[in-house]
Amino acid sequence: MSVRRGASRRRAAACALAFATALLVSEVASAQAPDAGHGASSWPYKFPIWGEKLAERGIRFPLPFGIGLNYAYADQAIAISNIAVGVNDGPMTDLSKIIKFGDLNSRINALNLRADLWLFPFVNIYGMANYIVESKTQVSVVEPFAFDAGAVQSGVGGGFGATFSGGALGLFGTLDLNWTWNKMEKLDKPVGTFLLTPRIGKNFGTFAGLEWILWVGGMRQSIQADTKGEIRLSDAVSGSGFQEKLQGWYDGLPPGSQAVVDGIVGRLNGDGDPVIHYQLDKAIKYPWNMLIGGEIGITKAWRIRTEVGFIHRTQFVLGLNYRFGLFEAGPAAPAK
After folding, report:
1. Which residue in 64, 189, 202, 315 is deepest, having the highest Cβ count within 10 Å?
2. Are 157 and 182 in contact (CB under 8 A)?
C-alpha cells in the first residue's frame, strides 16, 4: 500500500504544484491610451511629462493617476518535465522516465490591486498586489498506470510593469510588459511570471453618455521553470482504486526497477500522513493566446474594463478603475 502511495503521490504532488504556479494574475493593462485628432486644449497637471505641450496639439490624455481593483480567472494547460521526488527526510529520486502525464490543467481565481501613473504621454508605469483566492489543479497520469490527482491552494504576491502606447489613423496601440512574483502556500519560493501583451484598438467616442473603447490583441506568458515544494500524501491523490493499481504495477516491476521505488516506499511505511517533497520543471503548454477587450468610461474618473482570452488559454478579467489628477502645473506663461 505504501508503495502505491509513494509513486503516485510524488507525481500528483509534482504536478499539482507545477500547475498552481502558472499564475495569470496580471490584469488588463491600461487600455485607455492618449487620443489624438482633437482641437487644442490646456492640460493642468504635471503628468504626463510634456502633456501640456501635446495637449496644445490636439492630444487628449487620461487623468494621470489611477487605482484599480480587478478580478481575474484563468484556465490553461501546463507541461511538466524533470521530476524528482522524496518522502519525509529521504533523498530525492528522479522519476522523469517513469511518470507520463495526460491532461495537466490549472484554474485560478485571483484579485489584483493596481496603482498606475502616466509618466510620459506614451509610457504608463504601475505596481500591483495579487491575492490568489484559489488555484486548483487537475492532473491526469497515464503511465505507469492511469489515475487522477490534484491540489487546491491560495497565495499572495505582487509585481510591476509598464505600458507603451501610440496612435495613428484613428487607432491606438499598446505594448504591455509586466513581471510578478507570487508565493503559493505549498511552494518553497515565489514563482516568477512574465507577460508580454500587444493590443490595438479604437476609441469610439461618447454614446449614451458613456465613452466606448474596444481592442484586440494577444498575450504571451512565461513562468519560472524550476519549482520546489511539498504536499501531504492525503492532499495529492483523488479518486478510488489508486492503491490497488499502484500495488499491481509495483509487483510487476523487475527487481532493478523495484529498487528505485523502494527508496521511497520504505519511508511511506507506517502510520501518519507522509510529506512528499518534489522538484520539477514546468512551462505553459501554449504560451500565446488571443484577447478581446473593452473599456467603458462612466466619467473621466471612473472606468470599467473587461477582457476575454481564448485559443489555448481561457481567461476573463473584470476591473473597476478610478483615475485622478495630482500635482497641478503652475499657471501657464502668457503667450508672446
Report:
1. 64
2. yes
